[in-house]
Amino acid sequence: MVATFLLPVKTALLVFPLIALVVMLPVAVHSYRSRGRAGGWTTLVFYCFLFYLLAAAMQTVIPLPSDPAGYCAEQTYASTPQLRPFYFLQVLEERAGGDWSLRAMVGNGALWSTALNVVLLAPLGFFLRYLVGMRLLSAVAVGAATSLLFELTQLTGLWFVYPCAYRLFSVDDLMLNTVGAALGWLVAGPLARLLPSLEPERDRRRYATRVTTSRRLFALLADLVGFVAVVGIVLGLIVLFGGTVVGQGTIVVILAAVWFLLVPALTGSTPGKRAMLLRLARTDGRRAGPLSIVVRNGVLLSPMWLAWLALSVDRWDFFDAPHQLLIPAGILLSLFVVGIWTPLAVLVGGDPGPHERLSRTVNVAIVPQAPPPPVPEPEKVASP
């Protein structure tokens, strides 16, 4: 029985790194914009919450039947929903057989199943109060809705992936899960006093002005992911409306010029930097001009555009066209500058990278203005 309960947790441990990798960038964007940093206690709590949700979901669907057709032909206990409230009390009494000793209770599988249904959504109630700041009624409603989602997933055979319900839909599970969410919310009150505060203003005051290496890397990653997504959408729309992508190289160059040159020239930031609340400025504090932006991004993104240039060559012939040697030589040089020199300068020496030295630009944090405190209304003086 213990192995059955641990199997979903093991599955969640295997799947969680992939999910964390997918949500890492959006989480970093939200963290930098709300707290000025991507790490810290709040981020750890969020990823714990994410892992818990995954483990709870796995608990409701795993183990899966290895032979769905054979299982559905032989097993019928889950074909009819259990709609009798408090039926679990009758099951407990039947399983106990009149023996309510501690040893008998420890070996009573129905008792463990009931306890698990209560415990399953207790962490949800805790996180909804501690992390989200949700009130009791809202947390109970979310707990009930989550439990209903789990039960419907079981009733529909993993939303009709399987030809029958392989786990029983039970109204008792709905009740016990919801009670567990409420208990978790209640426990979060006194427990939160012992844990660090998740108030973002404290982190914002301390970290909002810092331009850390991780912040710059996330900005670059956001730019690359966003640019690739835009290119894919534009090319996909062209094909969708009957066009061809014969001139896709020109389209990509135009989009790259807009994303990495025109937008920062007009706004001071690429979309990725803007997401991380960063902007470009000259070393003397003035706004970075178009030429500085061209030099900076041209050096920083040189491996990409040189590789694109290499792929656009129809025929390589170093004897008849020796100038083609400049492309692989440039790629090697750019890989050294961007892949070795820049990380060593930034991470080890704490110095500006070569793209910053040549363009005389730096990243500057954008610090949003805090909203002014509410002005108290003047007290009305009663007339004599």
Looking at how many chains there are and whether they match, the oligomeric state comes to single chain
Order of helices and strands: HHHHHHHHHHHHHHEHHHHE
- Report the C-alpha radius of gyration, rounded: 29 Å
Structural class: mainly alpha
Tell me the distance between the termini.
Answer: 79 Å
Count, helices: 18
Overall, the morphology is elongated
User: Hey, roughly how much beta strand do the residues contain?
Assistant: under 5%
Low-confidence stretches: none
Largest sheet: 2 strands, antiparallel
Task: Describe the protein in words.
The chain is an all-alpha fold and 384 residues long. The chain has 2 domains: 201 residues, no CATH class; 157 residues, no CATH class. Helices cover 66% and strands 3% of the residues. The protein has a two-stranded antiparallel ribbon with strand order 1-2. The N and C termini lie far apart (79 Å). The mean pLDDT is 85. It is found in: Membrane. This is Teicoplanin resistance protein VanZ. One of its GO terms (cellular component) is membrane. It comes from Actinophytocola xanthii.
